[in-house]
C-alpha cells in the first residue's frame, strides 16, 4: 500500500489500529509515536525496495530463535515499519555477559544455508543503505568470496573508489579463503549488521538488537563486526559467548578476514577513507 503522503503518526494509526496522541521526529527516517493509552512505538521509513520487508522478516527470524531480544514488529507495509520502542540505559558488565550468552544461542539456532534469507524475507535485501543479495551456498569460503566480498569490490572499482591494481590485493585474499577460513562450521543465524549502533542497551538491563541484515552466515562475521566498530564491554561479551558456544582455534586471527565484507560495504557507501582501511586489512591478511 502506498503511503499517499502519510506522516509517521498516520502510519502508526493505520498499521496498529490504534489512535495516536503524539509524534516526535528523530534522526533520518525515524519517528517516535505515542499511541492512545501512552504506549510509545518507533516508526521507520524504508530506504529502498524490499527494505522494510527484509527488516521485518529479519527481526521475526531473530526473535524466533528464542535467544536474543529484538523489538517486536507491530505492523508494516512496503514502505513503513512499526516496532516497539526500546527504553535505553547505560551499558554494564552484567548485561554484556548476558548478551554474549544470547548471541551464542542465536548463532547456534542455525540457518538452512550460507546466504539463506529469513523466512518470508526477500532475496534482494539490504545492509544499511547498500543492496545485499541473499544467495544460498554450501561452502563458506567460496560463498563469502562470491556473494559478500566480490560484489562490493566490483562496485567500488566501477565507481572509481578502488583502482584495478588495488582490487587485485583483495582478489588475492579471496583466492586464499579456503586456507584462511579455519575449520568448517555449519551456517549460523546472523544479525548480519552487528555494529555498536545496532546494539541497544535497554533500561531494563537487557540488550536488544535492531536493524538486522539477517541471513545464514559464519558466526565469526557478527563478532568481527562488533570488534571493527567497537562495542562497550566487548571482552565480556566474548567471554559470555565462549561460555555457551566456544569458538574454534584461531578465531582471533581470522577477525580481519570477516571484516572485509563490512569494510567493502562502507567503501561503496562512504568512499576512499574506508577503501584505505580495506586495503590495509587485505595486505595484513595476505602478508604483504
- How many strands, what sense, and barrel or not for the largest sheet? 5 strands, antiparallel
Extended strand count? 11
Structural class: alpha+beta
Tell me the β content.
15-25%
Major sheet: arrangement of strands: 1-2-3-5-4
Q: How would you spell out the order of helices and strands?
A: HEEEHEEHEEHHHEEEEHHHH
Summarize model confidence as the mean pLDDT. Answer: 95
Radius of gyration: 19 Å
Uncertain parts: none
Helix content: 40-55%
Query: How many helices does DSSP assign?
Result: 10
Shape: globular
Cα(first) to Cα(last) distance is: 53 Å
Q: What does the model show?
A:
With 288 residues, this protein is an alpha+beta fold. It is built from ten helices and eleven strands. The protein has helices at residues 8-16, 51-64, 93-108, 140-158, 164-175, 177-180, 219-229, 234-244, 255-270, 272-286, and strands at residues 20-25, 30-35, 40-45, 73-76, 80-84, 124-127, 130-133, 188-190, 199-201, 207-209, 215-217. Strands 1-2-3-5-4 form a five-stranded antiparallel β-sheet, with helices on both faces. A two-stranded antiparallel sheet has the order 6-7. Strands 8-11 form a two-stranded antiparallel ribbon. Strand 4 and strand 5 (80-84) form a beta hairpin. It is globular and about 60 Å long.
Amino acid at each position: 500500500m502506498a503511503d499517499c503522503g502519510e506522516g509517521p503518526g498516520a502510519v502508526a494509526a493505520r498499521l496498529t489500529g490504534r489512535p495516536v496522541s503524539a509524534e516526535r521526529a528523530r534522526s533520518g527516517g525515524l519517528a517516535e509515536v505515542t499511541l492512545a493509552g501512552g504506549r510509545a512505538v518507533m516508526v521507520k521509513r524504508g530506504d529502498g525496495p524490499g527494505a522494510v520487508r527484509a527488516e521485518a522478516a529479519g527481526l521475526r527470524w531473530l526473535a524466533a530463535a528464542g535467544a536474543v531480544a529484538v523489538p517486536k514488529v507491530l505492523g508494516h507495509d512496503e514502505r513503513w515499519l512499526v516496532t516497539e520502542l526500546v527504553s535505553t540505559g547505560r551499558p554494564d558488565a552484567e548485561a554484556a555477559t548476558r548478551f554474549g550468552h544470547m548471541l551464542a544461542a542465536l548463532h547456534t539456532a542455525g540457518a538452512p544455508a550460507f546466504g539463506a534469507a529469513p523466512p518470508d524475507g526477500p532475496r534482494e535485501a539490504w545492509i544499511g543503505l547498500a543492496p545485499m543479495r541473499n544467495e544460498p551456498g554450501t561452502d563458506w569460503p567460496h560463498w563469502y568470496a562470491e556473494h559478500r566480498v566480490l560484489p562490493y569490490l566490483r562496485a567500488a572499482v566501477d565507481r572509481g573508489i578502488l583502482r584495478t591494481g588495488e582490487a587485485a590485493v583483495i582478489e588475492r585474499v579471496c583466492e586464499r579463503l579456503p586456507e584462511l577460513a579455519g575449520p568448517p562450521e555449519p551456517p549460523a543465524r546472523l544479525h548480519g549488521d552487528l555494529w555498536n549502533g545496532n546494539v541497544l542497551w535497554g533500561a531494563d538491563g537487557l540488550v536488544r538488537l535492531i536493524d538486522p541484515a539477517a541471513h545464514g552466515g559464519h558466526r565469526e562475521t557478527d563478532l568481527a563486526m562488533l570488534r571493527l566498530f567497537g562495542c562497550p564491554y566487548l571482552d565480556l561479551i566474548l567471554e559470555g559467548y565462549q561460555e555457551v558456544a566456544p569458538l574454534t582455534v584461531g578465531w582471533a586471527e581470522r577477525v580481519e578476514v570477516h571484516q572485509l565484507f563490512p569494510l567493502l560495504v562502507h567503501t561503496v557507501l562512504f568512499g576512499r577513507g574506508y577503501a584505505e582501511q580495506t586495503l590495509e586489512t587485505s595486505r595484513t591478511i595476505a602478508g604483504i
